[in-house]
Design a protein that fits this description.
Shape: elongated
GO molecular function, one term: phosphorelay sensor kinase activity
Number of domains: 3
Number of helices: 10
Strand order of the largest sheet: 2-1-5-4-3
Distance between the termini: 104 Å
CATH topology of the largest domain: Beta-Lactamase
Radius of gyration: 37 Å
CATH superfamily of the largest domain: GAF domain
GO cellular component, one term: membrane
Organism: Pseudomonas fildesensis
Strand content: 15-25%
Protein name: Histidine kinase
Keywords: Kinase, Transferase, Two-component regulatory system
Structural class: alpha+beta
């Protein structure tokens, strides 16, 4: 059997096809390996990795990444090659590009230049990858340009995600700062109003009650209806004095300033006892803490007790105040109705707004608040915050 005649044209075609296959494999390897690597790198390292890979892919010896901020100010965020030649690349970077652009600049230090835009989610370019070579090269073919554009798109997606994350973190810090200022202003205003009421209206009501008592004691015996009216007036005056004291205590309990967190919370627990709820106390610390810590934990405990009275229909509440490993913690557990934690907040009543406020109070001090609850299974609330914000107890 004779061998088929040798066909040089067929051999050349097979060799060309093989080289094209190798080229495609190299492109795919570039994209896959670089894409995998970018997820593990910080933004600056991402830029450097893409720039190095792009220069190696097209065998070009200079390159940079030029980026523009929201105000249009340009900056070079990655570079490779000699600085004097890179200055020329930075000068021709064009953020208006939509697709890769090949430039031939005869007689310049870098006669062959390729620009590849990095576009954001809105389609506009916020950066450009600029590659240059010190000797003239042929323009890359369409597949090479597409590969570099895909590589630039991968980098652009990661950089834009990092920008968005940075923006969100900055907004979150700003929001937390505003909430912190709001809570401080609220506490200051409550304190001012409480002292104004104590020194003004509360004193007036107390004086009125005392004068009425004195008048009733000196007054001769009155007919039945008039005596009943006088007693009703005395009862109303006494009730007004009590209401005023409760209002002042709710705004800013003096017991918190004078005797500390444990006494103030125990005073709040009296509202549970008056409602017929059994209160069990467990405390491993009854000393003083920094003012911010005492106020935060007191307001958290106060809101938790409000929720028990308004919603829980509990028969028993356990309060635990402890200090351990530099963390002050407060637990408020009840055996009431409970609620479903996975329900949407906007479908619930003010209880969830109170829960959000409690969490924010703990978070602003670098702590956290955990809530465990289920329908008909009670609620367990646990707040933890750093005990000594200045490093020492008050």
């Amino acid at each position: 059997m004779q061998n088929p005649p040798h066909d040089p044209g067929s051999a050349l075609a097979m060799r060309a096809h093989y080289r094209q296959s190798e080229s495609r494999t190299a492109r795919l390897r570039l994209l896959v390996e670089t894409g995998q690597a970018l997820t593990q790198l910080a933004p600056n390292a991402m830029r450097e990795r893409v720039l190095v890979r792009a220069c190696a892919f097209l065998a070009m010896d200079h390159g940079l990444i030029q980026e523009w901020d929201a105000d249009g100010n340009a900056s070079t965020t990655a570079r490779q090659g000699s600085q004097d030649r890179l200055d020329g690349l930075a000068a021709i970077a064009d953020r208006r590009l939509r697709t890769p652009c090949w430039l031939e600049l005869p007689g310049s230090a870098l006669p062959s230049v390729l620009q590849v835009p990095l576009r954001g989610g809105d389609g506009s370019a916020f950066a450009v990858l600029v590659l240059g070579n010190s000797v003239s090269l042929r323009a890359p073919d369409h597949e090479d340009s597409e590969s570099l554009q895909l590589l630039a798109t991968l980098l652009a997606a990661h950089l834009e995600n990092d920008r968005l994350l940075t923006t969100l973190m900055a907004r979150d810090r700003t929001l937390s700062d505003l909430v912190n200022r709001l809570l401080h202003a609220q506490e200051d205003e409550r304190k001012r109003v409480a002292y104004d009421l104590h020194d003004g209206l509360a004193q007036t009501l107390a004086g009125l009650h005392q004068r009425l008592q004195g008048f009733a004691g000196r007054c001769p015996t009155l007919p039945g209806t008039l005596d009943a009216d006088l007693q009703a007036i005395l009862t109303l005056a006494q009730h007004s004095v009590g209401e005023g004291r409760q209002l002042i205590a709710g705004l800013r309990p003096t017991v918190l300033d004078d005797f500390g967190l444990f006494k103030a919370l125990d005073k709040e627990a009296d509202r549970l006892r008056e409602a017929g709820v059994s209160v069990q106390w467990s405390t491993g610390y009854d000393g003083r803490l920094p003012s911010q810590v005492e106020i935060a934990l007191f307001r958290i405990g106060q809101e938790a007790i409000n929720n028990v009275l308004k919603h829980a229909q509990a028969s028993q509440v356990q309060l635990v105040l402890a200090l351990h490993d530099g963390q002050a913690s407060l637990r408020v557990d009840d055996n009431g109705n409970g609620f479903a934690l996975d329900q949407r907040l906007d479908t619930q009543d003010a209880k969830h707004l109170g829960m959000a406020t409690m969490r924010e109070r703990a978070s602003l001090l670098g702590g956290q608040l955990n809530c465990v609850s289920a329908l008909h299974c009670g609620t367990q609330l646990h707040a933890r915050v750093p005990a000594f914000l200045d490093g020492t107890p008050r």
